[in-house]
Structures are given as structure tokens and as C-alpha cells.
């Protein structure tokens, strides 16, 4: 463990304005601490962080792309007066005592929605958070990856070469540990500088509401028919082929879950799609498919063939439907034909929300959920009253600041029928943008 007393505060104003100036490489201030792997070491860390002051920078490393589970394989922390700590959760399983030691502190987490679940799995659940990635979105930064924000706001260049490493590896190599420790090295300073910007721009209350919403969000429900997310599945044009995709996906998922290996390392999506397009008549034909000649695919060849054969024999009544099940409006691209008035409402609503987002330097999807806009435009309240629209937004998860900015505009847009019905512009799914890897 290393000491972090008297850490310098670095303000955004100190960042060199000349783009030709090379940013200094961020280094560990106090050297690399040992990984905490034993009960006595953990007890020492718990007491050190209990005795620290101010917010706690928290991060977690998973083995995405390598393991089936989303568990944390390393937890990193830093706090003034406590220093930095790298904790291996695998020997302990439960880190609730560590979480309890810092429960009254604000936890600074970059892209909290990615880490909260795996932290909760080991018993670490915050009461308050400050999400630097989300705050960067509210401030209109074009890139909100941790390295990008540290560079833009604090003027340091971060190493990111181990972001896709297999963190289930043991022992963890020293360069990986340095990378992991750097992820919390500047989070406290970044948080303070970003708070100053939020207050200056009148967005501090917005951020507070967003951070609270992160903690209040219910656990994500599994999406129906997860096999439909198989990459390249658009090539499959018939229901029998879809049945093959489903059967292979489910067989692969069972193997992957049991072995705790990423499904794509058991059998790539491309192999599933190739088999679904060909629908081989026997096992020998399956083995001759290009994607099934590798050692990984060959290892479970009996399983793959049984899955395909089962799909081949299904009666038509049990074949999956072409379209995915969805409890909301139809895809926006179909609105102009199915309901021209709804298409007009959607275009007007999107235009109004987009204009507000631009005025406040916000990503449109952070101002209001695209799914909420679609639902409102497809089935607007019968009474075009501001109070009714406000309640609709509230019940669909909009925060007070979002409602204050958009409710009146949406009421006007959806109450007025345009003279023409332009087709809605393409809209991404209601999912947050991909986190900038930098």
C-alpha cells in the first residue's frame, strides 16, 4: 500500500493549450503496491481506507472476452490518507468488510454502470457515486473514455495497452498491475475538476440526479431471445435457419457457462451463422464447413451436430418467428407506412429534443432516452396537456432536469400535426453509446 497524503490538485486550466505540446506520461506517484491476497493484508487495507478522508476512487477489472462470468478479478482503490490498494477478490469471494469501511464516502467510478454489478457481487455497494464518464457526457466532451478525459482535463497521457487483457490470469504481470493502478491514480483530481466545470455550466444538479439514478436503477432484466444478438444473423432469411442459430447458441451457452469461458472462444458467431445458412444434412457435411475445421469447434462436434439435427427436425409450429419479440413500438423505419401521423410526431419530437440537446451541449440520448421518445410519439396521451406529458416522462424514468428541459417542447411537438409527414431519421437503439476505449 502507498501513501497519498498532500496530493497535488491539478486543474483544467493547467492543461497546455498548444496541441503540439506532448502530454506528460502519467506515472504512479508512490510506486506499485503489492496485490492484496491474504486475510492479514486485507485487514490492513480495510483499516487504512477506513481512516482515510474524502472520496474513494474505485475501479474493477474483468475478463471480458475470456470468461463467461462478469466477475471482478481485481479491485483498485485510492483515497487521500490511505494511498492505493490493489485487491484480488478471488481468494476472498466477499469484500463486504472493505465496502463497509468506505460506505460513508463518495465512490468515484468511471462508467459506473459497467462496474457496479461486479462490485456488488463481491459485497461492495456504494451509497453515493460520482461517475466521471457520465459527467463528461453532460459536459459535452466528444470523448469520454478515462484516458481521453484525463488528457483533456488534467493534461496527462495514460497507458491503455492492457485494457483488453485477460484479468483472470494468475499471477498478474507487473505491467498490467501498473496499468490497473493508474486507472485510480487521477480519479480524485479528475472528479474535482469536472465538478468545477459542472457547477460553472449550471449542470451540477443534473449530475446529482443522474448519479442517484444509477444507484436506483433496478437490475437489468435478461433480454428475450438473446440468441438473436448473434453477429451476422441478418444473413439467415428463413425460420429453419433461425432454429439452427438458436439451437447452436443455446448449446454453446451451456458449455461456456459450465467452463466459465467466453462463448466466442468455444464457437465463434461466424460458425453458427455458417451452419445456419448451410443446414448440413449430416455430421460429415458439418465437419467440412470451414468454420468447423478448427480444434475448438471440433472438440464439441457431437454437441453441435445434435443441436443442428434437433433444429432440422422441429415441426414448423415450433420454429422461431422472423422478428424479435419487443414490447414497445415497431421499428421507426416502418412508421411512415404503418402510421404516417405517428411518423410525423416522431420526427417533430426528435427535432425538438435534438435542438435542446445542442443548445446545452449534450448528447441527445443523455437528454432523453430514445426509447421514451419513440413510445411517446407512437402512443401519445389523449390529452395534450403539459402535466400529462410530464407524468408520462416521469413514469418512463426521466429525471426532473430532463423533464424541465423537454416536457413543454414535446407537448407542443406532439400536439401539432405537421402538414407533411417526413420519414423519421435513423435512430440508434436505446442503449448508451459505446464507451470510448481511449
What is this structure, in a nutshell?
The chain is of the alpha/beta class and 438 residues long. Helices cover 47% and strands 7% of the residues. It has helices at 39-50, 96-101, 112-121, 132-138, 146-154, 174-185, 187-200, 204-216, 239-259, 263-266, 269-278, 283-288, 295-299, 301-313, 335-338, 340-359, 364-367, 370-378, 386-395, 400-415; strands at 35-36, 53-61, 74-80, 83-87, 106-109, 128-131.
Commentary on this structure:
There is one protein chain. The protein has 438 residues and is of the alpha/beta class. The protein has three domains: 12-216, Nucleotidyltransferase, domain 5, CATH 3.30.420; 226-318, HRDC domain (DNA polymerase, domain 1, Orthogonal Bundle); 332-415, DNA polymerase, domain 1 (Orthogonal Bundle), CATH 1.10.150.80. Helices cover 47% and strands 7% of the residues. It has 20 helices and six strands. The protein has helices at residues 39-50, 96-101, 112-121, 132-138, 146-154, 174-185, 187-200, 204-216, 239-259, 263-266, 269-278, 283-288, 295-299, 301-313, 335-338, 340-359, 364-367, 370-378, 386-395, 400-415; strands at residues 35-36, 53-61, 74-80, 83-87, 106-109, 128-131. It has a six-stranded mixed β-sheet, with helices on both faces. The radius of gyration is 25 Å and the shape is flat. The two termini are 27 Å apart. The model is unreliable at 2-17 and 428-438 (pLDDT under 50). It comes from Kribbella deserti. Residues 412-438 are annotated as: Disordered. Residues 238-318 form the HRDC domain. This is Ribonuclease D.
Amino acid at each position: 500500500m502507498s501513501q497519498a497524503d498532500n496530493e497535488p490538485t491539478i486543474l483544467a486550466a493547467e492543461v497546455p493549450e498548444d496541441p503540439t505540446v506532448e502530454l506528460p506520461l502519467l506515472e504512479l506517484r508512490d510506486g506499485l503496491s503489492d496485490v492484496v491476497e491474504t486475510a492479514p493484508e486485507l485487514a490492513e487495507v480495510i483499516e487504512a481506507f477506513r481512516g482515510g478522508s474524502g472520496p474513494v476512487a474505485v475501479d474493477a477489472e474483468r475478463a471480458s472476452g475470456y470468461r463467461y462470468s462478469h466477475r471482478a478479478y481485481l479491485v483498485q482503490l485510492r483515497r487521500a490518507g490511505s494511498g492505493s490498494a490493489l485487491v484480488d477478490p478471488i481468494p476472498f469471494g466477499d469484500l463486504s468488510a472493505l465496502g463497509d469501511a468506505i460506505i460513508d464516502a463518495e465512490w468515484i467510478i468511471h462508467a459506473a454502470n459497467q462496474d457496479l454489478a461486479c462490485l456488488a457481487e463481491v459485497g461492495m455497494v456504494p451509497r453515493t457515486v460520482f461517475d466521471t464518464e457520465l459527467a463528461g457526457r453532460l459536459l459535452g466532451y466528444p470523448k469520454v473514455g478515462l484516458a481521453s478525459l484525463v488528457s483533456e482535463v488534467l493534461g496527462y497521457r495514460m497507458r491503455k495497452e492492457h485494457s483488453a487483457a485477460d484479468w483472470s490470469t494468475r499471477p498478474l504481470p507487473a505491467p498490467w498491475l501498473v496499468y490497473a493502478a493508474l486507472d485510480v491514480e487521477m480519479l480524485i483530481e479528475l472528479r474535482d475538476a469536472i465538478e468545477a466545470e459542472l457547477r460553472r455550466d449550471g449542470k451540477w444538479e443534473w449530475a446529482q440526479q443522474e448519479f442517484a439514478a444509477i444507484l436506483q436503477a433496478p437490475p437489468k432484466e435478461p433480454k428475450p431471445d438473446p440468441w438473436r444478438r448473434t453477429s451476422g444473423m441478418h444473413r439467415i432469411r428463413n425460420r429453419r435457419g433461425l432454429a439452427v442459430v438458436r439451437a447452436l447458441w443455446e448449446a454453446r451457452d451451456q458449455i461456456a457457462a459450465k467452463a466459465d469461458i467466453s462463448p466466442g472462444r468455444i464457437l465463434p458467431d461466424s460458425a453458427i451463422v455458417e451452419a445456419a445458412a448451410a443446414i448440413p444434412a449430416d455430421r460429415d457435411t458439418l465437419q467440412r464447413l470451414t468454420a468447423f475445421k478448427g480444434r475448438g469447434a471440433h472438440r464439441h462436434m457431437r454437441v453441435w451436430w445434435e443441436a443442428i439435427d434437433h433444429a432440422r427436425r422441429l415441426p414448423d409450429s415450433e420454429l422461431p418467428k422472423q422478428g424479435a419479440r419487443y414490447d414497445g413500438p415497431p421499428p421507426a423505419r416502418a412508421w411512415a407506412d404503418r402510421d404516417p401521423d405517428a411518423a410525423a410526431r416522431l420526427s417533430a419530437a426528435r427535432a425538438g429534443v435534438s435542438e435542446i440537446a445542442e443548445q446545452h451541449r449534450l448528447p441527445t440520448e443523455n437528454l432523453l432516452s430514445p426509447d421514451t421518445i419513440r413510445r411517446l410519439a407512437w402512443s401519445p396521451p389523449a390529452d395534450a396537456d403539459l402535466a400529462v406529458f410530464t407524468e408520462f416522462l416521469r413514469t418512463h424514468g426521466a429525471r426532473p432536469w430532463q423533464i424541465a428541459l423537454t416536457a413543454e417542447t414535446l407537448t407542443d411537438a406532439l400536439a401539432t400535426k405537421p402538414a407533411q409527414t417526413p420519414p423519421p431519421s435513423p435512430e440508434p437503439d436505446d442503449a448508451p453509446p459505446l464507451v470510448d476505449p481511449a
